[in-house]
Amino acid sequence: MRNTRRNPLQANWLHRFFLASATAVLLQICPTASIGVPGSNCYALDNSGHIYDFSSWIGQPFEYEGKDSDLVVRFCKDVESRSQTGYLDFGRFDKVNYFVAGSGHVNFVQEFYNGDLINCEHSYDKMGRTAKVNIICGSCPKGECKGGLGCICNVTYESACRVLVELAIPCEKQGLRVFEGFTVGFHPRSWELVYNGMTQLGFEKSHHEFSFKTEQSQVALYMTAIASLSNLVQKPTVKVSPELGLEVSLSGSGATGSQPTTLSPTILMVAWRCEEARDTPYEVEITVPVVGYDPIQFTLTKMCGKS
User: Which tens digit of pLDDT belongs to each residue from 65-124?
Assistant: First the structure.
């Protein structure tokens, strides 16, 4: 009888072959898009890593009529209580991103700090009045409001210095899935190109002011990832526009598919040779496929001037 048992090494090779083939076909069929960092800090990643950009909601007011005072949330701006005796500031949306994924029926959480100090000088590490806004994508649990721009479902004062707000809104369309913790920089511990899986301003598309000069023949890029997820990072590919005139090759540990970690970054060497001079720069688009996530993509801009 013929032995039909598959050699484990052969099975592993076939698995890697089909995975690589599927990735290549997918990249050809589905156009990739750079996951650029949003233009404001009014964005969040949900529990599955998909990005939601709420930049267009900044300052949108939501008012709640309470027994003793009205509370107003200005989205990604501030929270304040309004009464006949005046306004009380319950915190502002800080430059540091206090916009994170929630749990249970709460989709996202916004924290507001450094509100008014009066009678709250020692609360929350001397940050004064603070507010926590639990955001629900959709309607309030008890149907307090439906449709439109949403509303505040409930307000609870933990103390005179701390307020909890439940806000229901029609959330923005789910964005691409971000490979959190992934960085690309010009040095082993930097992230000028990609930070936390998002392409930074200046490298999300071609920018003349960020271009590499004619005489620079190569550039070294350092890639890092969370160690437990580093095996998901695949071999990068490169696309040059226009196709003719600039010869580009990739080498180094980052080009061979080695697993990048924060302790051991991989190096992606990008070597280029100008074959045809142009008045406008060449676009060198590098794509790093990541299994289960939208690919990492960034653009280097290369000048080829006349000698």
Answer: 887 779 999 999 999 998 877 889 999 997 676 899 999 999 999 999 999 998 898 877
DSSP string of the chain?
Answer: ----PPPHHHHHHHHHHHHHHHHHHHHHHS-----BPPSSS-EEE-TTSBEEE-GGGTT-EEEEE-SS-EEEEETTTEEEEEETTEEEEEEE--SS--EEE--TT--EEEEEB----TT-TTSTTTT-SEEEEEEEESS-TT-S--STT-EEEEEEEEETTEEEEEEEE-PPPP-PBP-TT-EEESSTT--SSEETTEEPTTSSS--GGGPBPTT--EEEEEEE--GGGGGGB---EEEEESSSSEEEEEESTTTTTPPP-SSS-EEEEEEEEESS--SSPEEEEEEE-BTTSPPEEEEEEE-----
Picking from 54, 32, 31, 292, the residue whose alpha carbon sits closest to that of residue 174 is: 54
**Residues 133-149 pLDDT 10s:** 999 999 898 877 766 78
